[in-house]
Amino acid sequence: MGNLKNSSDICYNGNSVRVHRACNVKLGYHSHYNDRLCRVIDYRCNTHRLWPKRAATEIELMATDIHNSDRFRERYTFGPADELEIRGNLARTYEDVYTPDALGALAVLCHYDADRRALMSARIQRRAARARDQQRIAFLDPDTIIPRSKITVQQAREGNFVGSDIPRDLQRQWIQGTGPGARPHVPIETSMRNVAYALLSGADGWMFDGEDALGQITSMSLDNQRNLKLAIDHNPIFMDTAQRVSAEMNQWANTFFGHPIIDDWQQQIDFTTKIFRARGLHLDDRHVRFTDGGGLSASIVDLVLYVVNNYKSLQSAGASVVLYLPKIQTA
């Protein structure tokens, strides 16, 4: 099992189990793997009511599995000082998403994660204070300056500020749809049907959702990015899928309405405004993190990957880069 160090105790039913927090320096393991291992061990000991001797055996087996696993052994580091890493073999598996330009942008913007953590910490403290003092959620003071701006809350409420013009493709948003651009654990041709249905729906806009929940499961957030990139680029893989989906939609419409609903599927997929919803500020990304074990904002990762990989194709098509960042409330 390599070099073991930092033993600790887990107590169960009055009995102390000596746990080795395995740390194989040669393979570059970090403390977050050891913390994860001990959390699993603690759960196993208490939930399955293992006696100390059996628990110790399972501990050794789990540690061996983790340390022999390619998924934990392999990692890809990047950034000026190699301060960021991508877990497992995902840098190779999703090299079309983790492009050099995208990784360069992540390395430049990752320092904003400290601001994000400060905001989240302040929010938790405000909520704790309200609960402790039994306070209601109140409106912001009208004279408060909105952070990182020069306008007050009152000016914002009155619209007394100058902003950019509303882009042409956002001026009519009567019907909007929302949903992820991928399905988990299916081939890419099946996964990207989500995008095809969305863009063939006839909606004025479709918010492709990074999904706070589903985006944290396996690599679905990366599938979402890959599918959107293929669709925005009009990649043949997506175009073939869209053509099949449009035929299926028209077949259903002929039966139900007596006529097709899609006249020109190629024109239709460019009609709907593409809106990207990143995961919330409260989440760490599952795949990219700091090499010291600290998490990196899922919002930053999502926005960087989407914008860097798609802005040129969107601009060349005369489309806007439209982003939606949820959960930025100050309560």
Helix content: 40-55%
CATH topology of the largest domain: TIM Barrel
Unreliable segments (pLDDT under 50, ≥5 consecutive)?
Answer: 1-51, 66-72
Structural class: alpha/beta
Rg of Cα set: 25 Å
Please name the fourth-level CATH homologous superfamily of the largest domain. Answer: Malate synthase, domain 3
Number of strands: 10
How much of the sequence lies in strands comes to 15-25%
Count of domain modules: 2
CATH class (first level) name of the largest domain: Alpha Beta
End-to-end distance, in Å?
Answer: 48 Å
Strand order of the largest sheet: 3-4-8-9
Please state the average pLDDT score.
81
Major pleated sheet: 4 strands, antiparallel
The number of helical elements comes to 13
Order of helices and strands: EEHHHEEHHHHEHHEHHHEEEHE
Q: What would you call the shape?
A: globular
CATH-scheme architecture of the largest domain: Alpha-Beta Barrel
Secondary-structure blueprint:
Layout (H helix, E strand, L loop, with lengths): L3 E9 L2 E8 L8 H17 L4 H17 L1 H4 L1 E4 L5 E4 L2 H4 L6 H10 L3 H21 L19 H6 L17 E4 L8 H4 L1 H7 L5 E5 L10 H13 L3 H21 L8 H4 L4 E5 L6 E7 L4 E3 H19 L5 E3 L7
Parallel strand pairs: 5-6, 6-7, 7-10
Antiparallel strand pairs: 1-2, 3-4, 4-8, 8-9
Helix pairs in contact: 1-2, 5-13, 9-11, 10-13
